[in-house]
Amino acid sequence: MEASIEHWLAEQLNLGPVETKLLISLGIIMILWGFRFVTLQLIFAKIQEAKVRYYWRNGIKYFTVVVGIILISIVWIKQIDSLATFLGLLTAGLAIALKDPITNFAGWLFILLRRPFDVGDRIQIGTHAGDVIDLRFFQFTINEIGNWVDAEQSTGRIIHIPNGMVFTQSQTNYDQGFSHIWNEIGVMVTFESNWKKAKDILEDIVSKHCAHFTEEAEKKLLDASKKYMIFYNTLDPIIYVTVKDSGVMLTMRYLCVPNKRRVTEDAIWQNVLDAFASRDDIDFAYPTQRIYYNLTEGKPDARAKI
Questions:
Q1: What whole-number distance in Å separates Cα of residue 115 and Cα of residue 132?
Q2: What angle do CA 45, 49, 50 make, to 5 degrees?
Q3: How many other C-beta atoms can be found within 10 angstroms of the C-beta atom of residue 180?
């Protein structure tokens, strides 16, 4: 079939063998480009979700590239035996000369098949952390978080990371499996404060802001337990009490989604500041120096004997 098309074009346009093959190759490229354009237009007309669009766009792109390479190879290499020999030599040469790109391509296949992370996931790989916004043959791209910005919010920088890093660096996924994270906020009050009342206030505040996260997490945990050995005795917010050098530390531990951590902390702290400001028996503690006279300040039975 391909030989007859080539022969017909050569006769009609009076072209040489090389010019004919170039024309057929250009035609294949144009047809595949048109197929990709029309297919994406039809799909995008029915699908509005950005993530689904992304998968369709990349899937069709990879399909047309692979089909194009195969068809153009057939045009330029007449016999299957020659094609096999050509591909064997090409593969051997590439393995030696292009070690890093091949490793990155293998990393791309690993990401697609094993799915340690996906587009939209918040991850950390090596020293880089961010939200995955693109996956390509040789690299993936993240929207950086953290660094000089507190509470793991976006820095605005885009980082391109070679896919081969998935073989050499550990990956932390904030979203896969159990999609919520535990966060802790420590509030220190003085020893003279009514720490029990302060604990009750913090329990009310954290429950008000994080109860809906607990309900969401219970559903996610059930799904995650089908794939991973993840188990928690309780998902409810809790206040832990610890004694520090400067006072009593009350630590709020609660669940939240990764990209809401700073917003949640902000809302909780505003309520804590307002609540403590209205109480005369609760005061924040911080590193200070004081003179403690045991003879008058100590408990009667614990005072020094003169």
A1: 12
A2: 100
A3: 22
The model's confidence at residue 32, banded by pLDDT at 50, 70 and 90, is: confident
The C-alpha atoms of residue 109 and residue 91 are separated, in whole angstroms, by 17
CA distance 23 to 7: 12
Question: Is the separation of the CB atoms in 246 and 255 below 8 Å?
Answer: no
The size of the chain, in residues, is: 306
Domains of the chain (ranges; CATH) run: 2-97 (no CATH), 116-173 (2.30.30.60), 181-277 (3.30.70.100)
Q: What is the DSSP string of 30-82?
A: HHHHHHHHHHHHHHHHH---HHHHHHHHHHHHHHHHHHHHHHHHHHH--SHHH
Cα–Cα distance measured from residue 190 to residue 287, given in angstroms and rounded to the nearest whole number: 10
With left for phi above 0 and alpha for psi between -120 and 50, is residue 255 left, alpha or beta?
beta
Q: Which two tokens stand for residue 70?
A: 């195969």
Position 95 confidence tier, pLDDT thresholds 50, 70, 90: low
Task: Find where tokens 């070679």 sit.
Answer: 162
Using N-to-C axis directions, what is the helix angle for 80-97 and 50-76, rounded to 10°? Answer: 120
pLDDT at 46 over 90: no
What order of strands is seen across the sheet that includes strand 122-125? 154-162, 139-145, 128-135, 122-125, 171-173
Q: Report d(CA 306, CA 295) in Å as an integer.
A: 9
**N- to C-terminal Cα separation, the chain:** 114
Dihedral sign from CA coordinates of 26, 28, 29, 31: positive
CA dihedral 80, 85, 88, 93 (to 10 degrees): -130
Q: Which two tokens stand for residue 129?
A: 């952390």
Instruction: Judge contact between 107 and 140, C-beta under 8 A.
Output: no
Answer whether 0.85 is exceeded by the pTM: no
